[in-house]
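The protein record quoted for completeness.
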Amino acid sequence: MLNKRLQFIGFDKALKICSILIFFILSGCPHNTIQHRTPLTFSKTLSESVTTDYREYGGFSIWINCNERLAKATYTYIEADKDSYNRSQTKNYYLDNRFNTNCNQLSSKTYQKTLGDSRKLPPHKHFDVGHLVNKNHLDYSQRYIDESMVMGNMHPQVRLFNQRKGAWYYTEKLVECLRQISPLHVWAGVIIGNSDADDYFVNSHGVKTPSYSWKLIHRTDINKIQIFVMPNSHTSIAENIDSYVIGYADFVLMLEDSFVRELVSRYEKISADINTWVVEGHNTLMCEGIVTSIK
């Protein structure tokens, strides 16, 4: 039967049809092949009952839940191999009064000043002003680095979690290394949770201390995502990073805001890799045979 059909439509046409069929078989469904090799754009209208303040800066965007005065989602697009500068911020932490001031934190002072000298306190009371969008990911522009110091990009972050041995620091190193391989879409945010035991900054800054921080990394070279949800704790260390990698469905269940679920819903059909993407080193980094450095 097949030979008769080939004779009827002609060999050239049959070959073309076969080629098209093979392409679709290998490619899979169209929504699994969209790789977004340019920055995403967003609508300011989100389906959320709480007041949500969308703020766009150079190189990154943030969405603040104004009831909590914290960014529940941030986004930055990082081009491949765009890491050839050595810059640091020239601006201190600041409040951005160009936007809805009712959504701002109450202070741009460090969180630790509220608690006092960390040398006299236990590790769970050592807090950094934690970036959601890391300033080093924006090191191709001095203005972008300085803008990342806005308090809307900050949250109370336990110091050991944020610094060299911490799980959050691991994800920052991972982005720095993977950017040498592929364009990246990087999302991050916080989950407040139900505990108020560590809400030390409600009076000083108007914010609760998040129980968790999350990060979603989309690699466009392999069109896969990896999602980390990590406790904001001094026990949240890089050695435990494997236990913080979760699938998309579990991730969405943990999110507190419907507008965040709406923002990340674009990744529902993209494969979530649950095998931890590995980065080694500190100042000099290595991932998948690529060697780079944090400048």
Residues 11-27 form the longest helix (17 residues). The chain has two domains: 1-33, 39-293.
